[in-house]
Amino acid sequence: MAILGYAASVLMGLSLGLIGGGGSILTVPILVYLFGVDPVLATAYSLFVVGLTSLVGSYSHFRAGNVQLKTAFIFGLPSIAAVYAVRKFAVPYIPDPAFYIGSFAVAKGTLLMVLFAVLMLMASISMIRQGRQKESEKKSTDNYLLIFLEGLLVGGLTGLVGAGGGFLIIPALVLLAGLPMKQAVGTSLLIIALKSLIGFTGDLGAGQPIDYGFMLLFSAFAIAGILLGSYLTKFISNEKLKPAFGWFVLVMGVYIIIKEVLL
Fold first, then answer.
1. What is the Cα–Cα distance from 78 to 169, expressed in whole angstroms?
2. Were 34 and a residue from 5, 209, 244, 261 both cysteine, which residue would form a disulfide, CB within 3.0 to 4.6 Å?
3. Which carries the bigger pLDDT value, residue 211 or residue 243?
4. How many Cα atoms occupy the beta-carbon half-sphere of 255 within 13 Å?
5. How crowded is residue 231: how many other Cβ atoms within 10 Å of its Cβ?
6. Dist. CA 44–CA 260, nearest whole Å
7. The pLDDT of residue 210 is above 80
8. Whole domain around residue 93: which residue ranges?
9. pLDDT exceeds cutoff 80 at 134
10. What is the spatial distance between Cα 29 and Cα 42, in angstroms, rounded to a whole number?
11. DSSP 126-153
């Protein structure tokens, strides 16, 4: 399973490099189901792995002029604050079990995985609706108040489930900031990197038992994937990849819900 898990980590990095999102959507399930990592700890690992991988990927986009620093700052600042606060002050205090439905106890790990699956379903709809997003790219807006508020909301949600949030950030940058897809991808990677790595420090402060050797090895495979993905963007249209990836995410989200709730 470990070999399959590391191969999957390369695919995770590949998705980040190609479409600027999807890293955490794949990372948490890979860690939980292929490596047997506890779901709560997996969300912490995910923040570091996706953050470091995105930081490497954002460099090539920055060199190509695809990173809008002003937009990244306006979206990223509230998002970073929200994800750090949630990881440090909220996640450690969620009880285990989280709550009861009659006599049935809902475990903390199960709650986080189901929330994660719900975000996956939302992300899949966003990516499958490719045509609407492409039309919106033609309308340039500078609604920075909405961008700020969206950053706050995305930071809180992704901090809770350990996601980088590219699947939510990119639609926000396209719809609210009017960025072309290429610039939305590059800007998203920088936001994800800063938000995830700073959010991970909240887990350090919360005393999570981190296996640094495993985390760095997993990150190395993911970085290989994002470097390959960034190179392939020269030849492959990410608009064509989004719907296909969206259907894949939809299937995975349904699978997680079935596995956690029904099995």
1. 13
2. 5
3. 211
4. 10
5. 13
6. 20
7. yes
8. 2-262
9. no
10. 8
11. HHH-HHHHHHHTT-----HHHHHHHHHH
Angle among Cα 238, 240, 244 to the nearest 5 degrees reads 105
Under a CB-based contact definition with an 8 Å cutoff, are residues 219 and 49 in contact? yes
Domain count, the chain: 1
Half-sphere exposure of 147 (CA within 13 A, CB side): 24
Q: Give the percent of the chain with pLDDT over 70.
A: 89
- In which residue are the tokens 């495979």 written? 221
Token couple for 67: 């990173």
- Can you read off the two tokens belonging to residue 42? 């997996």
Which pLDDT does position 130 carry in this prediction? 57
Question: Could you tell me the CA-to-CA distances from 221 to 3, 124, 184 in Å, in that order?
Answer: 11, 25, 24
User: Which DSSP string do the residues of 201-228 spell out, in sequence order?
Assistant: HHHHHTT----HHHHHHHHHHHHHHHHH
Q: What is the mean pLDDT of residues 153-181?
A: 76
Q: What is the token pair recorded at 16?
A: 């980040």
Looking at 162-211, list the stretches that DSSP marks H as alpha helix, in order from N- to C-terminal side.
166-176, 181-205
